[in-house]
């Protein structure tokens, strides 16, 4: 899930609204985003311009929104529909949201990433303006069509609930009756958008689409795909990272009833994010395939990872940081930190470590592919269609026009569906098997699939002056490059910046100010494949910075809230969430014996959050009692959706703090299923209090990845207050005597 | 032949399937895809069905052990999607990705049908075997209470 500072791309966004007569029926309003178009260039560009239908009104009055946004349950489509419906004056729940027949059409290129993707908590914020304008344009055209028919000027007619009405005469016409006329009118040069005070749906939606189908078990997921003659594949992947098949005896596997084929899947180390080597068993159904897999006899080669042990990583990472010449990409530098150390009243230094983590969406990765007449059909939760294209090209040598995707909702992604190993594997199997192939991960496969969250080490050094104020701060964040390295052009960036690895510590989004700041990323690749993960580098960066801010406050004898506020400049929204969260949690009130609060904050995608954790200790057992969370996300288009994303993020943060940990021993992932890779259950949840502040009403911003990162440091900070012990690696051990 | 009744319908299945977990019989043989697969080890609850009235992880029940029994799946929870829990789930807007929800609903339905008092403790006890990665636990608690308040013991 990618992050990049929204403001530095905003000036590049260009909008053109135009209505199309190209469709056979109905009215379509679309717009086109042209990467790289510059002012003055527009005339040339418009000539061959084919508008893409974003909003279609059909003669039967149905409204369709065509948009390529993968849905993994975050309510994105509901919010997008609301933006159109608000201006078009129709009920958002009645707007059909469909994906384009061809998801590679240029207009669906994500305006920030330049690749076909849904990720990075940007979906609603980036589309907000364009969708409202598209809706408003359609409305104006429909009103103009009615006015013309009635011999009136458009300003005397109004759009209301899917109709145009003229109050004076009582005449009215449904949108469906007007579309053919409207399609012949020129698009207005500009449209007037509603003021937020006029909103009927935006900011008020409490329900999502599809709920009725979901509660009946009727929604079709990737795992539910069933085609005639389809084979189900499971893959025994290299147990040790990088190992190759040295010997294979498939006889026993092929003898299992239902098993049809055994196919060796070659590793693709030549492709960034490419798959490991594996042996696939293809059968009539999943259970047979699994039985066949158990009967496989595979001898694996040795690998450079045969001695790799993740337990040794913090030590190895420290050694890298101890080297004076460690490769550094500076993210923020002010003043001269070196000058501050000798004159400091106090110096602090601390290292913070986080382990590998697996995304573990509840629906394990599952994807069906079929090669027919030189076309490769994918069916399932394809979150990044350009990876499907890449797989088709790298594996089958097919060009991009030969890929067709039937996109289905995913049972969660959290970054797992932004990997590409499974797309490459299934493309290979479809090609080799000569039949439609449904590739399914077991839970064990999912836990061991790699391409999860990277292990990291952060070193912080701080100098306090005689008044307990921060005079200098140095941060070295050691981690591998993010999944951004899979994107074209990554290595050519002159500053070698990886925006997804330096979240919350960059010049534009680091929260704190001090006379001397020196922050940077130390790229260190262990070779263990890692990838996208909900909240990516916010997690370790915020854990380290927010823990260290508490350590500094404590060393200087300051209140952690006051200390943070004293080092913020011109961040009124940030200050406000901190103050409100503190008030909500009773920060300044006396606490019962054996209870403590801890605070942490985060910001990103234009949103701000503060979390206060409340812990108690009874009979030596530490319990998380409550998380109080305040966010400011600008405008919440669908407040119910925002609230559930905030809750989900807090749950994920609790997971990072207490459970998430993937160990690799002798090159093999140790954990295998939910018994040894724990995830949060209902019984793990503390009381959760959430407040969504009314922020900047004109500008909705992302929330999906905002709230998990501050949870672990808030807990670590509370544990320190409760026990005097400072925990600097996760998962936090709540059982140690303090 | 192995006989089972699923959502009121009788099925006769081959002896060859004796060791196949009920989950895969439901999904792949009877084509009832509402019951989901999450872990295959009885750890996540995505495959929860009612077996002779008890909430049961279908991934852990070989077909032979289900022989002669009665199975209810999400498809059979109500005729028209109007079980009090299904209504409450929509009212509270519980599902995110929705993948865990058939299992969650079957666990919750067993709790309500048991006649036990519905409170925070009994909800936690009944529901903590069902994992939701999206984070719908808070709303699940609200929806179960809502259904219970509205007399949804069916
Ligand atoms: S699939 Fe049966 S409990 Fe997880
Ligand atoms: S709603 Fe997605 S796993 Fe529960």
From TrEMBL, chain A:
This is Exported oxidoreductase subunit. Residues 216-304 form the Aldehyde oxidase/xanthine dehydrogenase a/b hammerhead domain. One of its GO terms (molecular function) is oxidoreductase activity. It holds the Pfam family MoCoBD_2. The lineage of its organism: Bacteria, Pseudomonadati, Pseudomonadota, Gammaproteobacteria, Oceanospirillales.
Automatic annotation (TrEMBL), chain B:
GO terms for molecular function: 2 iron, 2 sulfur cluster binding; metal ion binding; oxidoreductase activity. It comes from the Bacteria. Residues 1-77 form the 2Fe-2S ferredoxin-type domain. Transmembrane segments: none annotated. Keywords: 2Fe-2S, Iron, Iron-sulfur, Metal-binding, Oxidoreductase. Pfam families: Fer2 (PF00111), Fer2_2 (PF01799). This is (2Fe-2S)-binding protein. The lineage of its organism: Bacteria, Pseudomonadati, Pseudomonadota, Gammaproteobacteria, Oceanospirillales.
